[in-house]
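Problem 12. The chain below contains 258 residues. Write out its predicted structure in token notation.
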Amino acid sequence: MKFHKYQGTGNDFVMIDNREQFFPKESVQLIEKLCDRRFGIGGDGLILLEKDTDTDFRMVYYNSDGNQSSMCGNGGRCLVAFAKSLGIIKDATTFIATDGLHHATILENGIVSLQMKDVKEVKIEEEYVFLNTGSPHHVTLVNDIENLEVKTNGASIRYSDLYGKAGSNVNFVSQLSENNFRLRTYERGVEDETLSCGTGATATAIAMYAIGKTNSKEIAIDVEGGKLKVSFDKTDNGFENVFLEGPATFVFEGEIEI
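Solution.
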């Protein structure tokens, strides 16, 4: 099987061109093995690019545990770059994912701007904010983000009674300036900290605006693997025209026996 590897600010993915529907989607063990960093290719997730009758392509996303999951922002951006490399698109695209339609553009320098879903509801609690940006996200401000045990603290929230069996991604945030925040994310399905999380960066930007930590509608997010930018419009219906922007980089390609 031929594969491609892409990363977006350190969030890395195994990419498969599945337009001919050859990939055995029911094999959780295979997907988990392909994502394994010691016995497989290695990645935070695996993404299938498939045909779609109404858009340029369909995105099917699996976490590294082998299970199909909700939307992945960095994965979506990387898939746009992959689609361009395959000649399916040029510099702009519309594709379908589990949370609906997405529009995206790709610049010559490899920066991909991806439109995320509108966010109509933001739940503000005393110690955290919860919202869904294509995937569920718990967002909380912390003081010493550099020394925080993200895996331990993230898992305790992800598996708490607060979110039940489905769980939630967990984002730890500190403010650097009026429109710049530092983010570390624990991702469910990976069950560990990742170097970046696109839906998490999007959720963090909206959450910080919602609780009054910033008045800016264009917010820089520093993640472990680089820098992302989130922009949006605030309307009576919530947050619309939400865009996630950052690099999407080809790493390598190869063939693996399955």
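Discussion. The longest helix spans residues 73-85. Students who got a different answer should revisit the alignment rule from Section 12.3.
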